[in-house]
Every structure is written in C-alpha cells, then in structure tokens.
Specification:
- The structure is a single chain.
- The protein is an alpha+beta fold.
- It is globular and about 50 Å long.
- It contains 4 helices and 9 strands; from the N terminus they run βαβββαββαββαβ.
- The longest helix is centred in the middle third of the chain and has 21 residues.
C-alpha cells in the first residue's frame, strides 16, 4: 500500500513541506518512487501566466533533449520559461538522467482563436506524441503532464531524498496545491509512468 499526502493553501508553499510531513508515514512506502502533483504554480524567477501550459518530465539524454526542443518548435510552441533545478546529482540514484524539466510555453498562434476543447485536445495530443517519441527511442524521454498551471515531478527513490536531490527546499518552485505519493512497490516493476498521481487529460 502506498501513502498519499495533500496540502492546499491560499498562499503558495514549497512542496518540500509535504515531503517532510510524509516522513511520519514511512511504514507505508519503501523508497521505490515519488510522485508530486502541483497546481497553482509560482516560480521565484519568473512571473508565470497560468494560461501557459507547463510541460513536465525527464530527458534521459542530450539527444532526447534536442528532439524535445525540435518537436515543440516545429509544432509552433513558444518557450516562455525553462525552469532549472538546483541539482544535487550525488543524491540522484538513477544515473540515466540528463535533465529534469518544467517548461512553460505559449500556445501556437493557430490556436489563439480555437475553442477551449480544441486547445485541450492539442495539449493532450502533443504530450502523447512526445511520450511515443521517447518510447520509440529506448525510453529516453519521459513526459508526465502538459497542462496550464499544472506540474508533475516523478522519480525513483525515497521521497525526501528526491526532494533533496532536486533542491525542492530552495523556494524556487511553489504551488497552492500539492499532492504527493510515496510508492510501495509490491507487485510490479518500477515504472515512472505508473507512479501516482496520474495526469489523465
């Protein structure tokens, strides 16, 4: 059985506070994974417009990172913000990690006059296309979410250790809603996509 923790507030807070609270539930997870869902985003070094969709995931190689850039540019997205985590690489247990990313984009111009449903469908299709691209290239690109005012962070490891590795305590990222899961891996192989919370759109 896994353990979930949820915090909401009027004022943005660091997701690290939720990870520290989860330490009281250590008997419910085994360090096989962490999932974080953040909504109501705030970045210390960027005035975020909540209309901009945020692309969340992991590039496992430089080639995957370049393909991601090319894909988004060819599809017409304008990069507005590229968050750079203050990494503690010595704490990252998985070695095939090139770049953890949270990237805010402006929608392609051709969608400015489209309906909300058409915009939503485009975000879903873009995310699924990126996921398929990663799977077709040895799983070198993992994409968790692509949606306005939503970010997802997932990684294998003990929740607090993952937070330390990504320096989530530094106040660079805050949100008004944070749901965290510490995974208990009892029946299945470890898969980043399989870690709760899920993003379904």
């Amino acid at each position: 059985m896994c353990r979930l923790a949820l915090k909401t507030a009027n004022e943005p807070f660091s997701p690290y506070t939720v990870l520290t609270a989860m330490e009281a539930m250590q008997e419910g997870y085994d360090g096989s994974g962490l999932g974080l869902l953040l909504r109501g985003m705030e970045f210390e070094d960027f005035r975020y417009n909540p209309k901009f969709p945020i692309l969340s995931g992991i590039a496992h190689s430089d080639k995957a990172w370049r393909r991601l850039d090319d894909f988004m540019e060819e599809r017409g997205y304008e990069l507005k913000y590229d968050h750079k985590f203050h990494m503690r690489w010595d704490l990252v247990t998985e070695k095939n990690r090139y770049r953890y990313f949270l990237r805010a984009y402006r929608m392609p111009d051709k969608f400015m006059e489209k309906s909300q449903q058409e915009k939503d469908d485009e975000l879903m299709l873009a995310r699924l296309a990126l996921r398929r691209d990663g799977e077709a290239n040895g799983n070198d690109l993992t994409v968790f979410s692509f949606w306005p005012d939503v970010a997802m962070i997932k990684e294998i490891g003990w929740p607090l250790a993952v937070g330390d590795a990504l320096c989530l305590h530094d106040g660079q990222i805050k949100s008004r809603v944070c749901m965290a899961q510490g995974r208990q891996n009892t029946n299945y192989g470890i898969n980043l996509y399989a870690c709760h919370p899920f993003f379904l759109q």
